[in-house]
């Protein structure tokens, strides 16, 4: 059986409600952790661990203010950010960090695509290097073309992971982005060897999945069972009514 997660902000009351709803972990984005002062993070980490013991995964590795492609690419800035950000993840006990970060990895118009992809490759390998020292695995996420102009399919992202060729850089499969890209779920079978984490949302409006939706989520979970996947599947969606939607979302895992 998969591990059930829900993405939420660095708000300890929401973190607590994820636990109360019955999920296996709360996925707090790295960028939210980095928005906290050192003092506020220390308080948050203490309360988080009192609720969960340790974290499992974290979305949102890079903010747009730390570009990993384009003319403002800065290796020293990227490394310094990774050391602090992944240090905070390590404090919480997180094992997986998602490298989607569309604003950071978007190649600016007019900039060499070849150079931009080489920069992203360096950043992914550097993230893997820092992560490995802290017992963390980076998972690369495809993003739909409307959000980013790089790594827009699971096929492309899988090939990128193979090219990076680092033991701490693996693949994330995102149900929403795959459907948006017109990719069939059978792609998961082809790329199962590199998949370490997953994201999940209603595939049209990106809302929290609900058993009343017009989608056969059971088929998706049956396929995960078929390929022997037992890692995390996190709800990463637009949330309007957190208290109610977090309770409804967990029902689709049944």
Structural features, described:
With 254 residues, the protein is α/β, with parallel strands linked by helices. The protein has one domain: TIM Barrel (Alpha-Beta Barrel). It is built from 11 helices and 8 strands. Strands 2-1-8-7-6-5-4-3 form an 8-stranded parallel β-sheet. Strand 3 (57-58), helix 4 and strand 4 (96-99) form a beta-alpha-beta unit. Helix 1 runs parallel beside helix 11 (242-249). The chain is globular. The termini are close together.
Helix content: 40-55%
Structural class: alpha/beta
Task: Tell me the number of strands.
Answer: 8
- Overall geometric form: globular
CATH superfamily heading: Divalent-metal-dependent TIM barrel enzymes
The overall number of domains is: 1
> What would you report as the Rg, rounded to the nearest angstrom?
17 Å
Average per-residue pLDDT, rounded, comes to 97
Contiguous runs where pLDDT drops below 50 for at least 5 residues: none
CATH fold-level assignment? TIM Barrel
Largest sheet strand order: 2-1-8-7-6-5-4-3
- Head-to-tail CA distance between termini: 10 Å
Order of helices and strands: EHEHHEHEHHEHEHHEHEH
State the helix count: 11
The biggest beta sheet is recorded as:
8 strands, parallel
Strand content: 5-15%
What is the CATH architecture assignment?
Answer: Alpha-Beta Barrel
The top-level CATH class is Alpha Beta
